[in-house]
Amino acid sequence: MENVIELRGVSKALKAFTIDNMDLQIKQGFVTGFIGANGAGKSTTMKLIMNLLQPDNGEVSVFGLDYASHEKEIKDRIGFVYDSNIFYESLNLKDISRIVAPAYKRWNHQQFKAYVNQFELPLNKPIKKFSKGMQMKASIAIALSHDAELIIMDEPTAGLDPTSRRELLDIFQEVMVDGKRTILFSTHITSDLDRIADYIVLIDEGKILFDKPIYELQEQYALVKGSTELLDPDTEAYFIKIDRSPNGFQALTKDATKVKEVFGNHVVIEEASLEEIMFYMKGADSHYD
Amino acid sequence: MFNLIKKDLIIQKTQIILFIPLIIFLILFARDISPIFIFLVAGAYISANAYVYDGMVESNILLNSLPYTRKLIVTSRYIGAMVYMVLSMAMAGAVLYLFDYSYDMMDMAIAAGLFFIFAAIAFPLFYILKPAYIGVVMFIGMIALAIGFQPAARFLERNLITITDFITSLSTTMLYLSGAAIAIGLYLISWIISQFIYQRKVF
């Protein structure tokens, strides 16, 4: 399995934030969901991948190429969507496509028009008069109209109403049908990912806590509830983080099978949602991966 | 690079429509201003607007996410500024001619020289300053220019004569050539500085 993005030992110190020695691999042909709380480092990592930020140390390679000598070639094959509008807002979509299209070798105007029709986007209305959902759709139409092999989206569903979110997720699924494309998709709305992600990367405080196939997460991770009497230093070792209350404890484990073996029917084991995993992993020791 | 230069025209469609009325306005309502000033405003018009536009939205993120290198973005800005200066001044010259406003080629040359100096100072600043301040700086700059231009021009005229007198051994051509060399030299140095700043810019 090939990696379309690789970060090796990447460090970047910003004013209020540091990424230290990060390793990350994004597999080709899959949807990877990049999750973490606000301020966990998702956007910074995305910017490092897009070469908007250059690492202080370490290497970033995309399609096996480095930015120092292949910047144009790499970006020609990437479609990007950011959470805020980056297009000249007084321009309409037609003019924006006039600016963007000649930058790409494989811009497909028919394809662009097809997406514009599908998303019901007006071509002659200034972008600033677009709703948030329309702006996102416009970004996506542009990102998908030059035969990009890698689509990088930073919080594409943020600020969208549930209907638009669903619509967008459907579009992403359609885009993935041919199996050649890779999507890296950051979000803090984890329910978006249950439907479309193949891999989940969790980041917290600039550190990658895990990078796993989603089915593995669903199989291995579980929420465990039981009486606090069951807890002692030995049994606590099975859990990533434990919440205690007068009524008992609730904890996240990454080894559901083992917990079942050890505690048997003394505890209740439930499937952990991505949100719960994210919540319990936050602030837990990073040696759990 | 051609695409990046052309981009400014697409963005400024409306402003370009206003360009000729602006020149006519200057001719009609400011009859006694120096044609140098008109040429300077005309020459700087598109480039100055381009910076304002690029500062307004996060267009640096857009441009740098497209298949362009940072080097190419800065290069296009500097070359584009020259191209637009030449085109705009030619257009302003044509409008002035139609309105029977007298000027000579030397006015154009001095305006071009001033533009190079103005751009040499302003462009790197635009890359350093936060987008929000660019408008303010532009505004103050324009006011300073408007207030200071006439006295400065008179001062220059007086001193130009003194200097010409002083270097009588040099021909006027020589004098203007060295003036041009200094202006273009500053522009080239500014270009290198902007490259240096933009390579390290954090978006």
TrEMBL record, chain A:
The keyword Nucleotidyltransferase does not apply. Keywords: ATP-binding, Nucleotide-binding, Transport. Gene3D superfamilies: P-loop containing nucleotide triphosphate hydrolases (3.40.50.300). It holds the Pfam family ABC_tran. The keyword S-adenosyl-L-methionine does not apply. One of its GO terms (molecular function) is ATP binding. PROSITE patterns: ABC_TRANSPORTER_1, ABC_TRANSPORTER_2. Residues 2-230 form the ABC transporter domain. This is ABC transporter ATP-binding protein.
From TrEMBL, chain B:
Keywords: Membrane, Transmembrane, Transmembrane helix. The keyword Transmembrane helix applies. It comes from the Bacteria. The keyword Transmembrane applies. This is Permease. The chain crosses the membrane at residues 12-30, 36-57, 78-99, 105-126, 133-153, 173-198. InterPro entries: ABC2_memb-like.
